[in-house]
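Protocol step 6 of 9: fold each sequence in the batch and record its structure tokens directly after the sequence line. For illustration, a two-sequence batch is reproduced in full.

Sequence one:
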Amino acid sequence: MKRVLFSALVLPFLLGSLACSAPLTTREKAAGIGALGGAAAGGLIGGAVGRPGVGAAVGGALGLGAGALIGDQMMGQEQKQQEQQRQIDQQQEELRRQREEMERLKKQTEY
């Protein structure tokens, strides 16, 4: 029963993720991990009370939601970091340009 339940939950997820042509986003990865973790925990808890299938389904759904929320927060942080890095790169380029201009002006006044 556990193998059937595990196969029913994991196999579609694995096939779906392998079939995607684009790489998974952070949100999608976290949602998948949350769903699998929630299903496993729910199956164990449900098994203790005699309803492993219901426990796995509920745990999977809750884990999916929690994982998606966490993944969304992580994606937001990644986007902020990328924007900050872009700004840093832009400022470094401006500094480089200004240094070159200063050197050019120094050479010009020497002559």
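Sequence two, same batch, same settings:
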Amino acid sequence: MIRTTLLITTFFVSTLLIVSCGGEDTKTSSADKNKTENTVEENSEETFIAATLGELMVELESNMSWESVTEAWKTRREGWVSESLAATDVTSKANLLLEFEGNVQWSAVSKQWVNVREAWSSDCQIAETDRGLADLLVIFESYIIWDVVSPNWVILREDWIIRCENVN
């Protein structure tokens, strides 16, 4: 049996985010106090929960340590989470993805990120679909170093990538 902790945000009670495994969240903030943790047992068959681009951005961000983001992010995060979950147009989502990336410390990404960041940012700005942005989110995640993500990310990552690939 697989045990997965699902966080139900108060913004959208129907929105389920697989954020952590084992009941520990990487960050704690006033936004996190609005989350209710529920443990769900699933069959050994893999179950993939459909997700929106905003949910996937929040899931990645939630699995990163506070040390991996700027000081300004600590006060901006709660609003960013709300906006990411509520965003409906591609331009807003692209801007939120760019804002998130811009608040990730250089020490939290591989040295090669500097070589692709400009082109990646340009691609975000001209993206026309959530699917295109989901691909860019996966690319960004691939440059984040393992030292700054939750130990559970190694378990969550494969499912997260599959859900990114299934964004419409």
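Proceed to step 7 once all outputs are recorded. Observation for sequence two: Residues 1-25, 28-46 have pLDDT under 50 and may be disordered.
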